[in-house]
Specification:
Elements lengths: L8 H23 L14 E2 L17 E2 L6 H9 L6 H6 L3 H5 L3 H9 L4 H27 L3 H12 L2 H8 L4 H16 L5 H14 L18 H28 L17 H15 L5 H24 L5 H12 L5 H4 L8 H6 L1 H9 L7 H6 L4 H8 L7
Helix pairs in contact: 1-7, 2-5, 2-6, 5-6, 6-7, 6-8, 6-9, 7-17, 8-19, 9-10, 10-11, 12-13, 13-14, 13-17, 14-17
Amino acid sequence: MKPPRPPGGASVWWQRAIYAAVIAYFVLGVAAHWRADSGFTSLIRFGQPFASRRLPELRQLPVATAPASGYDGQFYAQLAVRPDVRSPDVQRALDNPEYRARRILLPLVAHTLGAGQPWLTLQIYALLNVAAWGAFAWLLHRETRDRGVSGTLVWGTCLLNLGTLDSVRESLTDLPATLLIASAIALLAGERNKTWLAAALLSAAGLVRETAVLAVTMLAPQSANDRRGWRDRLAPMALAVLPAAVWMRWLAHLSPGGNLSGAASNFDWPGRAFLRHFYECGAALLAGSRHEQFIFGPLAALGLAWQSVSIIRRAWHDPAPWARAALPFALMFWVLGDAEWGGRAGGGYWAVARVCLPMTVAYALLLPRGRRFWWWLALPNICVLHAVIRFWPDFVF
């Protein structure tokens, strides 16, 4: 990716320095996860407690294993190795089969590219987020290259955000889904409005992560009273939502009654889990803990809340696709539950940063220029500092 060439020699050098620093940091961080015996599987974060339940194909492979329970990527990676959600082995390997299988597209891509070979498939799956980061960097570069140093800082903030880096660090679905949303927005904002193609990208995003379909609001007419606009847009909006809806319905039919115990605490009454997060972080700090998650937790929560309020206020009068796409995520921020906030378990907030990643990206891209730009960019994105620490493999929670 070539750096932009705006007028002004000093600003060009600053931009080049920022580009080089961000890209070098990311490449070195990914390389630090490589192990000669296990490859890049440390990016997947397999957990020791689930080792006995893994697919038979994985039991003899040198997979990097964390002493703790690991994280969600270990289940999506096993779907990539064997994407047959009806298989008893798959049902046993997944902690929540119906819930995990909703996000089937990324595992299918890795399975296809890996030609069904377990070891190769695991490596490809681990690096899909790395590829998504590179594509996202290119897409953001196109969006910000004409804004000088401020645009380059927006670019770096979006790429080093906790939601972005944690998706790479744990091989999750958040960044690839956000990439597809951003690609759909780029099509809508282009010289030729490609509504149907944008809808197709959103439908793919919904199969990567089901919450991505919330961004369908970008396809809505600018005016709620525009009847002709609604007639023209209803079919593309249906296309964007239908594949994920049909897939989830089939999964529900496959497992009558479902297994959504892990999803039950995803939502709560507005602001309840948000306030509990402050209470738990404060209690831990008063008890003497100086752990980074309790120090950054309240600061990051306030920053995300500021982003949410800013998007909600702006979306009512801003026809920009990013504003309309981010509005549902800004509203969802307030009803996220303990599963995202880490309530009753340790004051985490990184899941919220990932779930609301489209909101964070929209907030940065829509910032107006002016004296307050620097403060409005830096303070609500204070979790970037925590993100760059967590990304390195020796920093383990």
